[in-house]
């Protein structure tokens, strides 16, 4: 009975703490604020005949600084921009966010994404033209906000020499239905939120298209062992990176490899290998993989209409050439086996 009683008491305490934790308390520091009562700076007084020596490293500029103090300071970490577009650059400033796309066709594609969000009314619009979009009120619901936050933006295309992309600026802000002067921190947080909304949809649409193409093209993925530019062995799959990336987990699953982690923008997969039984190898008609039961890292490289495949062990060392050579025909057999299912 005693352990049960203790567990019940802990549960009550946790529940009480959770109930007392509001979005306001999660945004505020809980320590003392005695620094707000500090005496103002005074002029340094030198002793008679003293030659003062000062370092400019700690000089405080002589001007007024505007900003929150004490409990008005939002202690939450900044809203991160999800870097879902490989090669894109994100520039944040006091007014908003600029996203530079790596290629012109990607810039055009992101505007297709924005237009799709507008058509689906996920981005309500007041005005729209070739020069950009002025949104209506977007309502944000975040875990750490009990308040109703609304904001409006302009989203415009930008270009600079050979670069192109889009720019997001917040133009109005409301809290619980009341218009307010937005702080720099809130402008930064919700400009990043708007950016993530667009880039997440862009990434999701590309993934879905790649999945469909992968399903259509999986029957025609020649795989062979070759050499890279430095003469080292590498497996080459004659399929675009996006297509092969979407299909590879299913192929690896046929071989007893469980994908534990993967990063599409970096082209990396972490897999755990457990060798299938002899019956499996007889069924697919290849020799067993010359791999130990271990974790492996698979690195894919984008070669245009082809994809390179490199494998390293759990220590980060490339597997031996004979091991890589044993993987190539097994991947081919796994693709063929998927085609029959």
UniProtKB/TrEMBL annotation:
It comes from the Bacteria. Gene3D superfamilies: 3.30.530.50, Outer membrane protein assembly factor BamC. It is a lipid-anchor. Residues 1-18 form the signal peptide. Its main location: membrane. It is found in: Cell outer membrane. Keywords: Cell outer membrane, Lipoprotein, Membrane, Palmitate, Signal. Pfam families: Lipoprotein_18. Belongs to the BamC family. NCBIfam families: PRK11679.1. Part of the outer membrane protein assembly complex, which is involved in assembly and insertion of beta-barrel proteins into the outer membrane. Part of the Bam complex. This is Outer membrane protein assembly factor BamC. The lineage of its organism: Bacteria, Pseudomonadati, Pseudomonadota, Gammaproteobacteria, Vibrionales. The gene is bamC.
């Amino acid at each position: 009975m005693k352990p049960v009683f203790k567990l019940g008491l802990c549960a009550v305490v946790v529940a009480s703490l959770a109930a007392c934790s509001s979005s306001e308390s999660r945004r505020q520091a809980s320590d003392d604020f005695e620094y707000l009562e500090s005496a103002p700076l005074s002029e340094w007084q030198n002793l008679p005949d003293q030659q003062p020596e000062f370092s400019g490293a700690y000089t405080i500029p002589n001007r007024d600084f505007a900003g929150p103090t004490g409990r008005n300071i939002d202690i939450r970490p900044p809203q991160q921009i999800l870097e879902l577009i490989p090669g894109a650059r994100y520039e944040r400033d006091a007014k908003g966010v600029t996203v530079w796309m790596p290629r012109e066709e990607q810039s055009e594609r992101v505007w297709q994404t924005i237009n799709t969000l507008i058509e689906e009314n996920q981005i309500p619009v007041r005005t729209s033209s070739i020069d950009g979009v002025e949104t209506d009120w977007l309502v944000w619901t975040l875990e750490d906000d009990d308040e109703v936050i609304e904001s409006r933006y302009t989203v415009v295309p930008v270009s600079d020499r050979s670069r192109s992309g889009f720019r997001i600026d917040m133009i109005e802000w409301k809290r619980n239905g009341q218009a307010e002067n937005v702080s720099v921190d809130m402008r930064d947080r919700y400009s990043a939120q708007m950016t993530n909304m667009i880039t997440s949809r862009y990434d999701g649409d590309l993934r879905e298209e790649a999945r469909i193409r992968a399903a259509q093209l999986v029957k025609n993925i020649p795989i062979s062992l070759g050499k890279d530019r430095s003469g080292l062995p590498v497996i080459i799959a004659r399929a675009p990176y996006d297509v092969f990336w979407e299909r590879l987990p299913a192929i690896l699953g046929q071989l007893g490899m469980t994908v534990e982690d993967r990063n599409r923008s970096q082209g990396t997969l972490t897999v755990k290998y457990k060798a299938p039984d002899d019956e499996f190898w007889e069924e697919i008609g290849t020799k067993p993989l010359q791999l130990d039961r271990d974790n492996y890292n698979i690195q894919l490289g984008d070669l245009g209409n082809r994809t390179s495949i490199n494998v390293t062990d759990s220590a980060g060392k490339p597997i031996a050439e004979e091991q890589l050579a044993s993987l190539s025909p097994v991947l081919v057999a796994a693709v063929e086996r998927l085609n029959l299912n």
